[in-house]
Amino acid sequence: MDQRRALIAVVLIFVVLFGYNYWAGQQARQRAELEGAGDPTAAVTETTEGTASNAVEPGGTAADAGEPAERRTPSGDLVSDEVMGESVVESVTLEPERIVTVATPIYEAKISTHGADIVSWKLLEYDAADSVAVNLVPEGSRGLPLAVGYGPETVEARRRGFEYNGPDRIDLTEGSSSATLRFESVGADGVNLTRIYTFDPTTYAFSTTVQVIVPPGPAARRELSLGWPGIMPTERKEEDRAISSVAMVDGGASRHNLGGLKKESKKDAGEIAWVTSQSRYFMAAVAPVESMFDETLRFGDEDLRTAGFDATMQFNGESAEQTFLVYAGPQDFLAISNLGIELESAVDLGWRVTRPLSVLMLRALTAVYKVIPNYGLVIILFSILTKLAFYRLTHKSFSEMKRMQDLQPKQKALQEKYKDDKEGLAQAQMELYKTEKVNPLGGCLPMLLQMPVFVALFQVLRTTIELRGAPFALWITDLSQPDTIATIFGFPIHILPLVMGVGMLVQQKFTSKDPQQAMMGNLMPILFTAMFYNFASGLVLYWSVNTALSIWQQYYIHSGGKTEEAESEPAVVATEATSTTAAPDFSDAEPAPPTNGPTNGSGRKTNGSGRKKKGRRKK
Questions:
Q1: Beta strands per DSSP E along 37-94
Q2: Closest by alpha carbon to 172, among 73, 246, 243, 102?
Q3: Which of 210, 554, 609, 612 is most exposed, with the fewest beta carbons within 10 Å of its own?
Q4: pLDDT tens readout for residues 17-71
Q5: Cα–Cα distance measured from residue 507 to residue 598, given in angstroms and rounded to the nearest whole number
Q6: Residues 545 and 432 in one domain
Q7: 424 plus 552 within the same structural domain
Q8: How far apart are CA 183 and CA 166, in angstroms?
Q9: pLDDT in tens, 541-573
Protein backbone atom coordinates (compact mmCIF):
# COMPACT_ATOMS: atom_id res chain seq x y z
CA MET A 1 0.00 0.00 0.00
CA ASP A 2 2.85 2.39 0.89
CA GLN A 3 4.57 1.63 -2.40
CA ARG A 4 1.39 2.34 -4.31
CA ARG A 5 0.94 5.69 -2.57
CA ALA A 6 4.57 6.61 -3.27
CA LEU A 7 4.13 5.74 -6.93
CA ILE A 8 0.96 7.82 -7.17
CA ALA A 9 2.77 10.75 -5.51
CA VAL A 10 5.62 10.54 -8.02
CA VAL A 11 3.23 10.41 -10.97
CA LEU A 12 1.39 13.47 -9.64
CA ILE A 13 4.65 15.36 -9.16
CA PHE A 14 5.70 14.38 -12.67
CA VAL A 15 2.38 15.57 -14.15
CA VAL A 16 2.43 18.86 -12.21
CA LEU A 17 6.03 19.69 -13.14
CA PHE A 18 5.63 18.91 -16.81
CA GLY A 19 2.20 20.54 -16.87
CA TYR A 20 3.70 23.68 -15.41
CA ASN A 21 6.50 23.65 -18.00
CA TYR A 22 3.91 23.42 -20.78
CA TRP A 23 1.78 26.21 -19.29
CA ALA A 24 4.82 28.48 -18.75
CA GLY A 25 5.89 27.96 -22.36
CA GLN A 26 2.43 28.88 -23.64
CA GLN A 27 2.37 32.02 -21.48
CA ALA A 28 5.81 33.09 -22.69
CA ARG A 29 4.76 32.55 -26.31
CA GLN A 30 1.57 34.59 -25.87
CA ARG A 31 3.52 37.37 -24.14
CA ALA A 32 6.02 37.47 -27.00
CA GLU A 33 3.19 37.66 -29.57
CA LEU A 34 1.56 40.53 -27.69
CA GLU A 35 4.85 42.42 -27.38
CA GLY A 36 5.58 41.97 -31.05
CA ALA A 37 2.08 43.00 -32.18
CA GLY A 38 2.88 46.70 -32.22
CA ASP A 39 5.18 48.61 -34.55
CA PRO A 40 8.53 48.82 -32.73
CA THR A 41 9.71 51.68 -34.95
CA ALA A 42 6.86 54.01 -34.01
CA ALA A 43 8.13 54.84 -30.54
CA VAL A 44 11.66 55.37 -31.83
CA THR A 45 10.40 57.73 -34.53
CA GLU A 46 8.43 59.72 -31.99
CA THR A 47 11.44 60.00 -29.72
CA THR A 48 13.98 60.96 -32.33
CA GLU A 49 11.76 63.42 -34.22
CA GLY A 50 10.20 65.00 -31.17
CA THR A 51 6.62 64.21 -32.22
CA ALA A 52 5.51 62.21 -29.18
CA SER A 53 2.31 63.37 -27.53
CA ASN A 54 4.08 64.52 -24.36
CA ALA A 55 6.96 66.29 -26.19
CA VAL A 56 7.41 70.06 -25.76
CA GLU A 57 7.28 72.10 -28.94
CA PRO A 58 10.49 73.95 -29.87
CA GLY A 59 10.61 77.36 -28.24
CA GLY A 60 8.34 76.44 -25.35
CA THR A 61 8.46 74.79 -21.93
CA ALA A 62 6.13 72.51 -20.01
CA ALA A 63 4.82 75.51 -18.11
CA ASP A 64 4.09 77.36 -21.37
CA ALA A 65 2.00 74.44 -22.54
CA GLY A 66 -0.49 75.15 -19.79
CA GLU A 67 -0.19 71.66 -18.32
CA PRO A 68 1.42 70.48 -15.09
CA ALA A 69 5.00 69.35 -15.59
CA GLU A 70 5.41 65.60 -15.81
CA ARG A 71 8.25 63.25 -14.94
CA ARG A 72 8.86 59.53 -14.78
CA THR A 73 8.84 57.45 -11.66
CA PRO A 74 11.57 54.83 -11.25
CA SER A 75 9.33 52.34 -13.07
CA GLY A 76 9.02 54.72 -16.04
CA ASP A 77 5.43 55.96 -15.51
CA LEU A 78 4.71 59.63 -16.21
CA VAL A 79 3.20 61.54 -13.28
CA SER A 80 2.70 65.21 -12.53
CA ASP A 81 4.99 67.05 -10.15
CA GLU A 82 2.01 67.57 -7.84
CA VAL A 83 1.85 63.78 -7.42
CA MET A 84 5.57 63.53 -6.76
CA GLY A 85 5.34 66.30 -4.16
CA GLU A 86 8.56 68.00 -5.30
CA SER A 87 9.39 71.22 -7.07
CA VAL A 88 11.06 70.54 -10.39
CA VAL A 89 12.88 73.44 -12.00
CA GLU A 90 11.77 74.12 -15.61
CA SER A 91 13.65 77.15 -16.88
CA VAL A 92 15.50 76.00 -19.99
CA THR A 93 13.97 76.03 -23.43
CA LEU A 94 14.16 72.65 -25.14
CA GLU A 95 15.63 72.76 -28.61
CA PRO A 96 14.85 70.05 -31.14
CA GLU A 97 16.35 66.77 -29.97
CA ARG A 98 19.53 65.45 -31.55
CA ILE A 99 20.68 61.85 -31.18
CA VAL A 100 24.43 61.38 -31.12
CA THR A 101 25.60 57.88 -32.09
CA VAL A 102 28.91 56.35 -31.03
CA ALA A 103 29.63 53.12 -32.91
CA THR A 104 32.43 50.73 -31.97
CA PRO A 105 33.13 47.11 -33.00
CA ILE A 106 31.38 45.81 -29.84
CA TYR A 107 28.60 48.29 -29.04
CA GLU A 108 26.56 51.17 -30.40
CA ALA A 109 25.54 53.96 -28.01
CA LYS A 110 22.99 56.69 -28.62
CA ILE A 111 22.92 59.87 -26.51
CA SER A 112 20.12 62.44 -26.56
CA THR A 113 20.75 66.18 -26.31
CA HIS A 114 17.66 66.25 -24.09
CA GLY A 115 19.36 65.49 -20.78
CA ALA A 116 22.57 64.08 -22.32
CA ASP A 117 21.23 60.67 -21.24
CA ILE A 118 21.87 57.35 -22.98
CA VAL A 119 18.74 56.32 -24.87
CA SER A 120 20.15 53.14 -26.45
CA TRP A 121 23.10 50.83 -25.73
CA LYS A 122 23.24 47.90 -28.14
CA LEU A 123 25.72 45.06 -27.78
CA LEU A 124 26.67 44.15 -31.34
CA GLU A 125 28.16 40.74 -30.46
CA TYR A 126 25.08 39.44 -28.61
CA ASP A 127 21.55 38.78 -29.85
CA ALA A 128 18.48 38.44 -27.67
CA ALA A 129 15.93 35.64 -28.03
CA ASP A 130 14.16 37.64 -30.77
CA SER A 131 17.39 37.65 -32.84
CA VAL A 132 18.01 41.39 -32.52
CA ALA A 133 21.00 42.95 -30.79
CA VAL A 134 20.78 43.07 -27.00
CA ASN A 135 19.83 46.58 -25.86
CA LEU A 136 20.67 47.38 -22.23
CA VAL A 137 18.30 50.41 -22.18
CA PRO A 138 14.59 49.50 -22.34
CA GLU A 139 12.74 51.32 -25.09
CA GLY A 140 11.39 54.66 -23.84
CA SER A 141 13.76 54.69 -20.85
CA ARG A 142 17.12 56.38 -20.28
CA GLY A 143 20.44 55.13 -19.02
CA LEU A 144 22.38 57.27 -16.54
CA PRO A 145 19.56 59.78 -15.93
CA LEU A 146 21.03 62.72 -14.00
CA ALA A 147 19.18 64.64 -11.30
CA VAL A 148 20.53 67.47 -9.12
CA GLY A 149 18.89 68.46 -5.87
CA TYR A 150 19.50 71.63 -3.89
CA GLY A 151 17.22 72.75 -1.10
CA PRO A 152 13.61 71.79 -1.90
CA GLU A 153 14.17 71.80 -5.67
CA THR A 154 15.22 69.09 -8.08
CA VAL A 155 16.59 69.58 -11.58
CA GLU A 156 16.18 66.60 -13.87
CA ALA A 157 18.62 66.70 -16.76
CA ARG A 158 16.26 64.98 -19.17
CA ARG A 159 13.92 67.97 -19.00
CA ARG A 160 16.63 70.30 -20.22
CA GLY A 161 18.32 70.82 -23.55
CA PHE A 162 22.10 70.40 -23.77
CA GLU A 163 24.41 72.04 -26.26
CA TYR A 164 26.64 69.66 -28.18
CA ASN A 165 29.16 70.89 -30.75
CA GLY A 166 30.14 67.74 -32.61
CA PRO A 167 29.07 65.29 -35.30
CA ASP A 168 25.90 63.24 -34.99
CA ARG A 169 27.82 60.00 -35.55
CA ILE A 170 31.26 58.91 -34.40
CA ASP A 171 32.72 55.60 -35.64
CA LEU A 172 35.54 54.07 -33.63
CA THR A 173 37.54 51.15 -34.96
CA GLU A 174 39.61 48.73 -32.91
CA GLY A 175 42.75 50.76 -33.54
CA SER A 176 41.08 54.12 -32.83
CA SER A 177 41.87 56.22 -29.80
CA SER A 178 39.14 57.04 -27.31
CA ALA A 179 36.48 59.65 -28.14
CA THR A 180 35.25 62.39 -25.77
CA LEU A 181 31.81 64.01 -26.05
CA ARG A 182 30.85 67.15 -24.10
CA PHE A 183 27.28 68.30 -23.39
CA GLU A 184 26.53 71.61 -21.62
CA SER A 185 23.36 73.20 -20.24
CA VAL A 186 23.23 76.71 -18.76
CA GLY A 187 20.02 77.45 -16.84
CA ALA A 188 18.33 80.76 -16.10
CA ASP A 189 17.76 79.41 -12.59
CA GLY A 190 21.49 79.41 -11.94
CA VAL A 191 21.91 75.63 -12.26
CA ASN A 192 24.53 74.78 -14.87
CA LEU A 193 25.18 71.18 -15.89
CA THR A 194 27.99 69.65 -17.91
CA ARG A 195 28.23 66.00 -18.88
CA ILE A 196 31.36 64.51 -20.46
CA TYR A 197 31.58 60.98 -21.91
CA THR A 198 34.80 59.19 -22.87
CA PHE A 199 34.43 55.97 -24.89
CA ASP A 200 37.04 53.30 -25.65
CA PRO A 201 36.37 51.06 -28.69
CA THR A 202 37.97 47.97 -27.09
CA THR A 203 36.02 47.68 -23.83
CA TYR A 204 32.47 47.90 -22.49
CA ALA A 205 33.68 50.22 -19.72
CA PHE A 206 33.64 54.00 -20.19
CA SER A 207 33.83 57.08 -18.00
CA THR A 208 31.40 59.93 -17.53
CA THR A 209 32.07 63.17 -15.65
CA VAL A 210 29.34 65.37 -14.17
CA GLN A 211 29.99 69.03 -13.40
CA VAL A 212 27.35 70.94 -11.43
CA ILE A 213 27.04 74.62 -10.49
CA VAL A 214 24.13 75.67 -8.25
CA PRO A 215 23.08 79.15 -7.03
CA PRO A 216 24.81 80.44 -3.89
CA GLY A 217 22.82 80.20 -0.71
CA PRO A 218 22.34 78.27 2.50
CA ALA A 219 20.43 75.40 0.87
CA ALA A 220 20.66 72.35 3.13
CA ARG A 221 20.22 69.72 0.40
CA ARG A 222 22.91 69.45 -2.24
CA GLU A 223 23.09 66.14 -4.05
CA LEU A 224 23.35 64.53 -7.45
CA SER A 225 22.16 61.11 -8.56
CA LEU A 226 22.65 58.73 -11.46
CA GLY A 227 20.86 55.50 -12.20
CA TRP A 228 19.83 52.83 -14.66
CA PRO A 229 16.23 51.83 -15.47
CA GLY A 230 16.97 48.10 -15.58
CA ILE A 231 17.81 45.52 -18.24
CA MET A 232 15.01 43.59 -19.89
CA PRO A 233 15.27 39.78 -20.13
CA THR A 234 17.16 38.59 -23.18
CA GLU A 235 16.53 34.82 -22.90
CA ARG A 236 13.47 32.74 -23.69
CA LYS A 237 13.09 31.90 -20.01
CA GLU A 238 14.65 34.10 -17.37
CA GLU A 239 13.95 33.58 -13.67
CA ASP A 240 13.11 36.47 -11.37
CA ARG A 241 16.12 35.59 -9.24
CA ALA A 242 18.43 36.21 -12.23
CA ILE A 243 17.04 39.73 -12.70
CA SER A 244 18.57 41.74 -9.90
CA SER A 245 20.35 44.82 -8.61
CA VAL A 246 23.54 44.44 -6.58
CA ALA A 247 25.31 47.13 -4.56
CA MET A 248 28.62 47.10 -2.71
CA VAL A 249 27.48 48.58 0.62
CA ASP A 250 30.04 49.06 3.40
CA GLY A 251 32.35 46.50 1.82
CA GLY A 252 29.75 43.75 1.24
CA ALA A 253 27.69 42.86 -1.83
CA SER A 254 23.94 43.32 -1.25
CA ARG A 255 21.72 41.60 -3.81
CA HIS A 256 18.00 42.18 -4.39
CA ASN A 257 16.25 40.25 -7.15
CA LEU A 258 13.06 41.04 -9.01
CA GLY A 259 11.02 38.69 -6.84
CA GLY A 260 11.54 40.93 -3.82
CA LEU A 261 11.68 44.26 -5.66
CA LYS A 262 8.23 43.67 -7.17
CA LYS A 263 6.80 43.89 -3.66
CA GLU A 264 8.67 46.99 -2.53
CA SER A 265 11.70 49.09 -3.40
CA LYS A 266 14.83 48.65 -1.29
CA LYS A 267 16.82 51.58 0.09
CA ASP A 268 20.38 51.25 1.39
CA ALA A 269 22.56 53.90 3.00
CA GLY A 270 26.26 53.84 3.79
CA GLU A 271 29.49 53.82 1.80
CA ILE A 272 28.37 52.48 -1.57
CA ALA A 273 31.21 51.70 -3.98
CA TRP A 274 29.04 50.70 -6.93
CA VAL A 275 25.51 49.69 -7.94
CA THR A 276 24.35 47.44 -10.77
CA SER A 277 21.30 46.55 -12.78
CA GLN A 278 21.43 42.97 -14.09
CA SER A 279 19.66 40.40 -16.19
CA ARG A 280 20.79 36.78 -16.37
CA TYR A 281 23.82 37.45 -18.58
CA PHE A 282 24.20 41.24 -18.82
CA MET A 283 24.96 44.13 -16.50
CA ALA A 284 25.06 47.92 -16.23
CA ALA A 285 27.09 49.24 -13.29
CA VAL A 286 28.04 52.70 -12.03
CA ALA A 287 30.97 53.35 -9.67
CA PRO A 288 32.25 56.76 -8.45
CA VAL A 289 35.99 57.03 -9.11
CA GLU A 290 37.15 59.22 -6.22
CA SER A 291 34.17 59.09 -3.89
CA MET A 292 31.21 56.89 -2.96
CA PHE A 293 27.45 57.03 -3.17
CA ASP A 294 25.66 57.75 0.10
CA GLU A 295 22.34 56.12 -0.73
CA THR A 296 20.80 53.86 -3.32
CA LEU A 297 17.19 53.05 -4.15
CA ARG A 298 16.62 49.80 -6.03
CA PHE A 299 13.28 49.14 -7.67
CA GLY A 300 11.57 46.54 -9.84
CA ASP A 301 9.20 46.81 -12.78
CA GLU A 302 6.93 43.77 -12.95
CA ASP A 303 5.65 44.56 -16.45
CA LEU A 304 9.06 45.10 -18.07
CA ARG A 305 10.66 42.55 -15.73
CA THR A 306 13.58 44.79 -14.88
CA ALA A 307 15.48 45.74 -11.72
CA GLY A 308 16.82 49.30 -11.76
CA PHE A 309 18.43 51.73 -9.37
CA ASP A 310 19.02 55.36 -8.49
CA ALA A 311 22.23 56.18 -6.57
CA THR A 312 22.78 59.47 -4.78
CA MET A 313 25.77 61.34 -3.33
CA GLN A 314 25.99 64.58 -1.39
CA PHE A 315 28.24 67.53 -2.29
CA ASN A 316 29.24 70.73 -0.52
CA GLY A 317 29.55 74.27 -1.82
CA GLU A 318 28.23 75.81 -4.97
CA SER A 319 29.86 73.41 -7.41
CA ALA A 320 30.74 69.75 -7.72
CA GLU A 321 32.61 67.54 -10.15
CA GLN A 322 32.44 63.76 -10.06
CA THR A 323 33.79 61.15 -12.45
CA PHE A 324 32.12 57.74 -12.67
CA LEU A 325 33.27 54.47 -14.15
CA VAL A 326 30.44 52.77 -16.03
CA TYR A 327 30.36 49.20 -17.28
CA ALA A 328 27.57 48.19 -19.66
CA GLY A 329 28.07 44.77 -21.19
CA PRO A 330 28.09 41.02 -20.61
CA GLN A 331 28.72 39.50 -17.20
CA ASP A 332 32.15 38.32 -18.27
CA PHE A 333 33.77 37.48 -14.92
CA LEU A 334 37.36 37.76 -16.12
CA ALA A 335 36.83 41.05 -17.96
CA ILE A 336 34.97 42.59 -15.02
CA SER A 337 37.70 41.45 -12.61
CA ASN A 338 40.23 43.53 -14.56
CA LEU A 339 38.37 46.74 -13.66
CA GLY A 340 39.88 46.57 -10.16
CA ILE A 341 36.76 47.66 -8.22
CA GLU A 342 35.55 44.20 -7.09
CA LEU A 343 32.63 44.40 -9.49
CA GLU A 344 33.05 40.66 -10.07
CA SER A 345 31.27 40.22 -6.72
CA ALA A 346 28.05 41.08 -8.55
CA VAL A 347 28.29 37.95 -10.74
CA ASP A 348 26.16 35.23 -9.17
CA LEU A 349 28.50 32.28 -8.66
CA GLY A 350 26.64 30.67 -5.80
CA TRP A 351 27.04 30.57 -2.04
CA ARG A 352 29.90 32.34 -0.33
CA VAL A 353 31.32 28.99 0.83
CA THR A 354 31.53 27.50 -2.66
CA ARG A 355 32.23 30.75 -4.56
CA PRO A 356 36.06 30.35 -4.53
CA LEU A 357 35.64 26.90 -6.10
CA SER A 358 33.25 28.36 -8.69
CA VAL A 359 35.79 31.03 -9.62
CA LEU A 360 38.54 28.41 -9.92
CA MET A 361 36.41 26.20 -12.16
CA LEU A 362 35.33 29.13 -14.33
CA ARG A 363 38.95 30.10 -14.90
CA ALA A 364 39.82 26.49 -15.69
CA LEU A 365 36.91 26.15 -18.16
CA THR A 366 37.93 29.25 -20.10
CA ALA A 367 41.60 28.19 -20.07
CA VAL A 368 40.83 24.71 -21.47
CA TYR A 369 38.53 26.25 -24.09
CA LYS A 370 41.55 28.00 -25.60
CA VAL A 371 42.97 24.54 -26.34
CA ILE A 372 39.68 22.72 -27.09
CA PRO A 373 37.38 25.28 -28.76
CA ASN A 374 34.15 23.40 -28.05
CA TYR A 375 32.51 23.90 -24.66
CA GLY A 376 30.61 20.62 -25.01
CA LEU A 377 33.91 18.71 -25.21
CA VAL A 378 35.30 20.84 -22.39
CA ILE A 379 32.34 19.89 -20.17
CA ILE A 380 32.81 16.19 -20.98
CA LEU A 381 36.52 16.50 -20.15
CA PHE A 382 35.71 18.22 -16.85
CA SER A 383 33.24 15.47 -15.98
CA ILE A 384 35.94 12.86 -16.56
CA LEU A 385 38.54 14.84 -14.59
CA THR A 386 36.23 15.34 -11.60
CA LYS A 387 35.40 11.63 -11.65
CA LEU A 388 39.12 10.78 -11.64
CA ALA A 389 39.80 13.31 -8.88
CA PHE A 390 37.21 11.67 -6.64
CA TYR A 391 37.71 8.12 -7.88
CA ARG A 392 39.03 6.73 -4.59
CA LEU A 393 36.26 8.43 -2.60
CA THR A 394 33.46 7.22 -4.87
CA HIS A 395 35.04 3.77 -5.10
CA LYS A 396 35.02 3.49 -1.33
CA SER A 397 31.46 4.78 -1.26
CA PHE A 398 30.21 2.27 -3.84
CA SER A 399 32.15 -0.56 -2.12
CA GLU A 400 30.56 0.22 1.22
CA MET A 401 27.14 0.29 -0.42
CA LYS A 402 27.77 -3.15 -1.94
CA ARG A 403 28.89 -4.57 1.41
CA MET A 404 25.74 -3.18 3.00
CA GLN A 405 23.74 -4.96 0.30
CA ASP A 406 25.53 -8.21 1.12
CA LEU A 407 24.47 -7.84 4.74
CA GLN A 408 20.79 -7.50 3.92
CA PRO A 409 19.98 -11.22 4.54
CA LYS A 410 21.57 -11.02 8.00
CA GLN A 411 19.78 -7.76 8.69
CA LYS A 412 16.45 -9.32 7.76
CA ALA A 413 17.17 -12.22 10.10
CA LEU A 414 17.85 -9.77 12.91
CA GLN A 415 14.64 -7.89 12.12
CA GLU A 416 12.69 -11.13 12.42
CA LYS A 417 14.43 -12.04 15.65
CA TYR A 418 13.96 -8.63 17.28
CA LYS A 419 10.72 -7.57 15.63
CA ASP A 420 9.25 -6.60 18.99
CA ASP A 421 12.44 -5.19 20.51
CA LYS A 422 13.66 -2.00 18.84
CA GLU A 423 16.50 -1.47 21.29
CA GLY A 424 17.67 -5.03 20.88
CA LEU A 425 17.49 -4.70 17.10
CA ALA A 426 19.56 -1.51 17.09
CA GLN A 427 22.18 -3.08 19.36
CA ALA A 428 22.29 -6.27 17.30
CA GLN A 429 22.71 -4.29 14.08
CA MET A 430 25.60 -2.31 15.56
CA GLU A 431 27.24 -5.56 16.63
CA LEU A 432 26.76 -6.89 13.12
CA TYR A 433 28.36 -3.79 11.57
CA LYS A 434 31.23 -4.07 14.05
CA THR A 435 31.79 -7.75 13.35
CA GLU A 436 31.63 -7.34 9.59
CA LYS A 437 33.70 -4.12 9.74
CA VAL A 438 31.08 -2.16 7.81
CA ASN A 439 30.34 1.54 8.30
CA PRO A 440 26.65 2.23 7.59
CA LEU A 441 27.55 5.85 6.73
CA GLY A 442 30.54 4.86 4.64
CA GLY A 443 28.55 5.17 1.42
CA CYS A 444 27.35 8.70 2.23
CA LEU A 445 30.36 10.50 3.68
CA PRO A 446 32.59 10.30 0.57
CA MET A 447 29.71 11.66 -1.52
CA LEU A 448 29.20 14.55 0.91
CA LEU A 449 32.85 15.55 0.53
CA GLN A 450 32.26 15.97 -3.20
CA MET A 451 29.13 18.12 -2.85
CA PRO A 452 30.91 21.53 -2.70
CA VAL A 453 32.63 20.77 -6.00
CA PHE A 454 29.40 19.61 -7.65
CA VAL A 455 27.51 22.68 -6.36
CA ALA A 456 30.23 25.03 -7.59
CA LEU A 457 30.35 23.45 -11.04
CA PHE A 458 26.55 23.44 -11.16
CA GLN A 459 26.51 27.21 -10.56
CA VAL A 460 29.23 27.89 -13.13
CA LEU A 461 27.52 25.90 -15.88
CA ARG A 462 24.20 27.50 -15.02
CA THR A 463 25.26 31.17 -15.09
CA THR A 464 28.44 31.65 -17.14
CA ILE A 465 27.93 33.70 -20.29
CA GLU A 466 30.65 31.72 -22.07
CA LEU A 467 28.11 28.94 -22.65
CA ARG A 468 25.50 31.33 -24.05
CA GLY A 469 25.02 30.44 -27.71
CA ALA A 470 27.88 27.92 -27.58
CA PRO A 471 27.12 24.86 -29.79
CA PHE A 472 28.18 21.30 -29.04
CA ALA A 473 27.09 18.81 -31.73
CA LEU A 474 24.06 17.59 -33.66
CA TRP A 475 20.87 19.16 -32.26
CA ILE A 476 22.62 20.76 -29.27
CA THR A 477 23.23 24.25 -30.65
CA ASP A 478 23.21 26.28 -27.42
CA LEU A 479 24.64 24.84 -24.21
CA SER A 480 22.96 27.56 -22.15
CA GLN A 481 19.49 26.40 -23.26
CA PRO A 482 17.60 23.07 -23.08
CA ASP A 483 18.39 20.74 -26.00
CA THR A 484 15.05 20.89 -27.78
CA ILE A 485 14.92 18.42 -30.67
CA ALA A 486 11.20 18.79 -31.46
CA THR A 487 7.95 20.26 -30.16
CA ILE A 488 4.82 18.14 -29.94
CA PHE A 489 1.50 19.89 -29.28
CA GLY A 490 3.43 22.85 -27.89
CA PHE A 491 5.48 20.67 -25.54
CA PRO A 492 9.28 20.72 -26.12
CA ILE A 493 11.10 17.39 -26.30
CA HIS A 494 14.52 17.45 -24.64
CA ILE A 495 16.71 14.38 -25.19
CA LEU A 496 19.56 14.82 -22.70
CA PRO A 497 17.36 14.86 -19.55
CA LEU A 498 15.67 11.65 -20.72
CA VAL A 499 19.04 9.98 -21.36
CA MET A 500 20.20 11.15 -17.94
CA GLY A 501 17.07 9.73 -16.29
CA VAL A 502 17.51 6.34 -17.96
CA GLY A 503 21.14 6.31 -16.84
CA MET A 504 20.13 7.05 -13.26
CA LEU A 505 17.59 4.19 -13.38
CA VAL A 506 20.33 1.82 -14.52
CA GLN A 507 22.62 3.11 -11.78
CA GLN A 508 19.87 2.52 -9.24
CA LYS A 509 19.92 -1.22 -10.07
CA PHE A 510 23.34 -1.42 -8.41
CA THR A 511 22.28 0.49 -5.30
CA SER A 512 19.79 -1.81 -3.60
CA LYS A 513 18.68 -5.44 -3.86
CA ASP A 514 15.73 -4.94 -1.53
CA PRO A 515 12.61 -4.55 -3.74
CA GLN A 516 11.02 -2.09 -1.34
CA GLN A 517 14.13 0.08 -1.19
CA ALA A 518 14.57 -0.22 -4.95
CA MET A 519 11.00 0.99 -5.45
CA MET A 520 11.68 4.10 -3.40
CA GLY A 521 15.09 4.55 -5.02
CA ASN A 522 13.53 4.62 -8.48
CA LEU A 523 11.70 7.80 -7.52
CA MET A 524 14.95 9.78 -7.58
CA PRO A 525 15.67 9.37 -11.32
CA ILE A 526 12.11 10.42 -12.13
CA LEU A 527 12.31 13.50 -9.92
CA PHE A 528 15.75 14.40 -11.28
CA THR A 529 14.50 14.08 -14.85
CA ALA A 530 11.60 16.42 -14.12
CA MET A 531 13.87 18.86 -12.28
CA PHE A 532 16.58 18.88 -14.98
CA TYR A 533 14.15 18.90 -17.89
CA ASN A 534 14.38 22.65 -18.53
CA PHE A 535 17.95 23.11 -17.31
CA ALA A 536 20.72 24.30 -19.63
CA SER A 537 21.93 21.45 -21.83
CA GLY A 538 25.53 22.07 -20.73
CA LEU A 539 24.62 21.24 -17.14
CA VAL A 540 22.59 18.16 -18.15
CA LEU A 541 25.45 17.01 -20.36
CA TYR A 542 27.84 17.15 -17.41
CA TRP A 543 25.48 15.18 -15.16
CA SER A 544 24.76 12.61 -17.90
CA VAL A 545 28.46 11.90 -18.45
CA ASN A 546 29.02 11.71 -14.69
CA THR A 547 26.15 9.21 -14.41
CA ALA A 548 27.57 7.05 -17.22
CA LEU A 549 30.99 6.97 -15.52
CA SER A 550 29.37 6.06 -12.20
CA ILE A 551 27.52 3.16 -13.87
CA TRP A 552 30.83 1.81 -15.20
CA GLN A 553 32.46 2.17 -11.79
CA GLN A 554 29.65 0.37 -9.99
CA TYR A 555 29.56 -2.38 -12.62
CA TYR A 556 33.30 -2.91 -12.11
CA ILE A 557 32.80 -3.27 -8.35
CA HIS A 558 29.81 -5.59 -8.62
CA SER A 559 31.47 -7.77 -11.26
CA GLY A 560 34.39 -8.58 -8.99
CA GLY A 561 36.76 -5.63 -9.27
CA LYS A 562 38.99 -5.61 -6.21
CA THR A 563 39.65 -2.71 -3.91
CA GLU A 564 41.98 -2.44 -0.98
CA GLU A 565 39.07 -3.21 1.32
CA ALA A 566 38.06 -6.25 -0.74
CA GLU A 567 41.60 -7.64 -0.80
CA SER A 568 41.85 -7.49 2.98
CA GLU A 569 38.42 -9.03 3.49
CA PRO A 570 39.31 -12.74 2.88
CA ALA A 571 41.99 -12.63 5.58
CA VAL A 572 39.48 -11.25 8.04
CA VAL A 573 36.93 -13.88 7.12
CA ALA A 574 39.49 -16.69 7.40
CA THR A 575 40.59 -15.53 10.83
CA GLU A 576 37.05 -15.31 12.08
CA ALA A 577 36.24 -18.73 10.65
CA THR A 578 39.16 -20.33 12.54
CA SER A 579 38.38 -18.95 15.93
CA THR A 580 36.52 -16.13 17.54
CA THR A 581 39.48 -15.53 19.89
CA ALA A 582 43.12 -15.02 19.03
CA ALA A 583 45.25 -18.20 19.42
CA PRO A 584 48.64 -18.10 21.18
CA ASP A 585 51.60 -17.76 18.88
CA PHE A 586 53.98 -20.72 19.34
CA SER A 587 55.93 -20.20 16.16
CA ASP A 588 59.10 -19.37 18.08
CA ALA A 589 58.88 -22.24 20.62
CA GLU A 590 61.26 -25.18 20.65
CA PRO A 591 59.71 -28.39 19.28
CA ALA A 592 58.61 -30.82 21.99
CA PRO A 593 60.34 -34.18 22.08
CA PRO A 594 58.32 -37.00 20.57
CA THR A 595 56.33 -39.06 22.97
CA ASN A 596 53.93 -41.90 22.84
CA GLY A 597 52.61 -41.27 26.32
CA PRO A 598 48.98 -41.10 27.28
CA THR A 599 46.87 -38.04 26.83
CA ASN A 600 44.98 -36.14 29.48
CA GLY A 601 41.66 -36.70 27.83
CA SER A 602 41.67 -33.41 26.04
CA GLY A 603 43.74 -34.78 23.21
CA ARG A 604 47.03 -33.38 24.52
CA LYS A 605 50.03 -35.61 25.52
CA THR A 606 51.06 -36.00 29.14
CA ASN A 607 54.36 -37.00 30.72
CA GLY A 608 52.89 -40.07 32.35
CA SER A 609 52.07 -38.39 35.61
CA GLY A 610 48.94 -36.90 34.19
CA ARG A 611 50.40 -33.40 34.04
CA LYS A 612 50.75 -31.49 30.79
CA LYS A 613 54.19 -31.43 29.29
CA LYS A 614 55.50 -27.87 29.33
CA GLY A 615 57.34 -26.36 26.43
CA ARG A 616 60.12 -23.84 26.84
CA ARG A 617 60.16 -20.52 25.00
CA LYS A 618 63.31 -18.96 23.72
CA LYS A 619 64.44 -15.96 25.66
A1: 70-72, 78-80, 87-88
A2: 102
A3: 609
A4: 445 444 444 544 454 444 444 433 333 333 333 333 333 333 333 333 333 334 3
A5: 65
A6: yes
A7: yes
A8: 10
A9: 988 888 888 787 777 666 665 444 444 444 333
